[in-house]
Amino acid sequence: MSAESRTIELRSSPHIRAGLSTDAIMLNVVYALVPVCLFAVAAFGLSAALMLAVAAGSCLLTERLMCRMGRQPSTLGDYSALVTGLLLGLTLPPGFPLWMTALGGFVSIALGKALFGGLGHNVFNPALVGRAFLQAAFPAAITEWTPAFITGRLTTCIPSTLAFPFMKAPSIDAYVANAGIDGWSGATPLMIMKFRFGSEAFDAITTQGLFLGSVAGSLGETCALLILIGGAYLIARRMMDWRIPVGMLGGAFALSSVFYLMDTSRYPTPFFMLFSGGLMLGAVFMATDMVTSPTTTAGTWVYSIVIGLFTVIIRLKGGLPEGVMYAILLGNALTPLINNVTQPRIYGAKRETKAEG
Amino acid sequence: MLLSSLRGNKTFSHGIHPPENKEATEGQSIRRLPFAPVLIVPLSQHTGAPAKPIVRAGQEVVRGEPIAEAAGFVSVPMHAPATGVVERVGLARDARGDMSPAIVIRPYPAASQHILYGAEVDIESLSREELIRAVQATGVVGLGGAAFPTHVKLSLPEGKSVDTIIVNGCECEPYLTTDHRVMIETPEDIYKGARIVMRAMGAQRVIVAVETNKPDAAERLCASLPTGQPFSVEVCETKYPQGAEKMLIKALVNREVPSGGLPLDVGTAVFNVATLAQIGNLLPKRQGLIERVVTVTGPGVRKPGNYLMALGTPLRFVLNECGYRGDNVTQIILGGPMMGTAVASPDIPVTKGVTGILVLTKEDLPGVDGRKVYACIRCGTCVRSCPMHLNPSELGLLARKREYAEMVDRYHLMDCFECGCCSYVCPSNIPLVQYFRIAKAVSRKRKANA
């Protein structure tokens, strides 16, 4: 054997590959989330920074632990656990206790992903599995809201953030009052819409405020503008399917328009619907999770529109003020079925041929 | 789809746009390579039965003389690529790494190398059957890489007819420029060949298809269109795999070859431009196929170009003539980078189906080496790239579980023609096409055993 024949490699075609790789996609999702995270810290202060760090850290640790338990090579390098951690943190209210956040991160990765077989095999969006768990386990803590841009937020934590595990969290009322805010109702725009429709507080909510993020809400959901910028970046880099945010927002807009036109005195405008709560964050960063959304083009449309419709129905007709999380989880559950019925017609297939089985 | 029709380019849906890398050779005229000291002519350079040798070791042969005859209908004869002496008839290394029967000829260095055999014939006087026999006698096979005997394609089964002949000048594989140069330099031969196959098949029209990245070729073809013939030139979008016959038929005449069927099931036949150029050149002179144009390119050679070379020229000789670097070479590929075959050694001959020799070096293997394979994240990029509209993602997941029957029955595995689009785009670097090759081989075997 000559030296030359030892260096010649045999591979099967194709011998070239496009540049995009899975870790690059995930890392770019992290980049797209950076402005949203920075805004969360700006709006909600030190607590937000700690929560994001704990959520991400908890997810990464759990991922490492699960790989080790399964005797698999570490999958931290694909950055998907980091994405899950950040997304989980961004869906939680500002004063959410850190120990609960850490628990949520564990559930996201362990129950939401590792149990199914790891990246690519999970049925539900892991971050939303974690959040659904927290909502069921800690219904009080997860509906405790703090106003945005409160004074002193960058130097002191919201008291409930540092609550001890299984201890009653200190009330945030004194903290809010200290900051010089009177009459804080502790409600997000969606809660005001749901429970005090037509009140002064409801009329005070402007679309501009919702768009720019001056309102109360979960860490990362308040500023629609930055979320859209992040989404535009990913779409421009072809790392996100534009059909999903378009379908989901379009579906929500269309159905809420119908309600609004039926009775303007009972239902909010479609613009309020679009920019309030977690719809934007869900449409751009949650429903677009590749693993849990359909692979076919037709299926993608069905999936995203269904989620949009469900969100509006839950918000307007359900018991909860917010419906994005359950709508997306429901969409995730439908994904295998949607995939199944939207398989593309292959080139040269006979028209009457139906897939068997 | 809408956008492309606005641009006036015909195409199919899905497909990919890999970097073309044709700049190094597309502007270079075809140059003739000298004869190698030894030419190795494998008896099986085509699909079908290997040819039967009709020469013995020690016998002198004249360039163009038949040295092996067709062994049955799906087989073609071989002709001596040079005047010289038959060194031996026996086994030689082939592109797959196996030993297979070949005729080894040592060309006479001082011979004039005139092609002696050939007597002009008027093709218009030949009947359809005579034309088909004459095509077989030239030894021409599909020169676009498939190496399927052309005369077999010309013979229509009972009850079938073909109205449209498509002449494939797309050359959608990156790096390759042989068809491009043939279209520029010998468009008349292409049209002569097109006329022959049109008559042999009883077709009504001929469409020559060129991609938008070869405007000079399209111009030359239009300028040399024969008058009074039902010939036309169409420009297709530059997209891989535009040159796959099913994609081309869809793009040009909007017909779909039925699953498991052939182009003639929808009244079409597709021929590569180089194939027709050879038929147009050789058949009227009753000559045989003894040489072809090959693109030798890639960062592993210093003098990339389009070379006319005798069939049987060893790769090593070709590479040395083209400034083979030898160092740092990681892959030698016969054909293009999407569907070509990597070979283990340069000590194999150029055969009829070789369109290009691509020499890649370590630094030029973008994203193949050292790239981690991740789990399928169901991003659907492969689904949106598959020209057959299959679901490679689902097929890949099934392949991992060895659910081969399910892949065939429900996800149309057998319609995959291994173009490589799915593997090319996969961000998780999953070797999808390789999985499918294995799955197909196993399924065929099971079917045969059943």
Task: Sum this structure up briefly.
The complex is a heterodimer of chains A (357) and B (450). By secondary structure, chain A is mostly helical.
Can you describe this structure?
- The complex is a heterodimer of chains A (357) and B (450).
- Chain A has 357 residues and is mainly alpha-helical.
- Chain A has one domain (22-339).
- Chain A has helices at residues 3-7, 22-44, 46-69, 80-90, 98-110, 126-137, 173-178, 189-195, 200-203, 207-212, 224-236, 243-262, 270-275, 279-286, 297-317, 324-341.
- In chain A, α4 (80-90) crosses α5 (98-110).
- The radius of gyration of chain A is 22 Å and the shape is globular.
- The N and C termini of chain A lie far apart (52 Å).
- Chain B has helices spanning 2-6, 23-26, 128-138, 150-154, 178-185, 187-201, 215-223, 245-253, 273-282, 315-321, 392-400, 404-409, 421-425, 432-449, and strands at residues 31-32, 39-42, 52-53, 60-61, 66-69, 78-79, 84-93, 99-107, 164-169, 205-211, 231-236, 268-272, 291-297, 305-310, 329-334, 341-343, 356-361.
- Chain B starts with a helix and ends with a helix.
- The relative contact order of chain B is 0.15.
- In chain B, 27% of the residues lie in helices and 19% in strands.
- Chain B is globular and about 65 Å long.
- In chain B, α6 (187-201) packs across α9 (273-282).
- Classes of the chains: A mainly alpha (357), B alpha/beta (450).
- At the A-B interface, α1 and α2 of A face β15, β16, α13 and α14 of B.
Q: Judging from the principal axes of the Cα atoms, what is the shape of chain A?
A: globular
User: What is the strand arrangement across the widest sheet of chain B?
Assistant: 1-14-13-17-15-16
* DSSP strand count of chain A: 0
Determine the strand fraction of chain A and express it as a percent band.
under 5%
Structural class of chain B: alpha/beta
- Can you tell me the overall shape of chain B? globular
CATH architecture annotation of the domain at 2-28 and 125-285 in chain B: 3-Layer(aba) Sandwich
Overall average residue pLDDT of chain B: 91
Distance between the termini of chain A: 52 Å
Low-confidence stretches of chain A: 352-357
The CATH H-level homologous superfamily of the domain at 2-28 and 125-285 in chain B: NADH-ubiquinone oxidoreductase 51kDa subunit
Low-confidence stretches of chain B: 1-8
Number of helical runs of chain A? 16
Query: How many domain modules of chain A?
Result: 1
- Radius of gyration of CA atoms of chain A, rounded to a whole number: 22 Å
Mean pLDDT of chain A: 89
Number of helices, counting only DSSP H or I runs of 4 residues or more of chain B? 14
Considering DSSP H and I runs of 4 or more, what fraction of the residues of chain B is helical? 25-40%
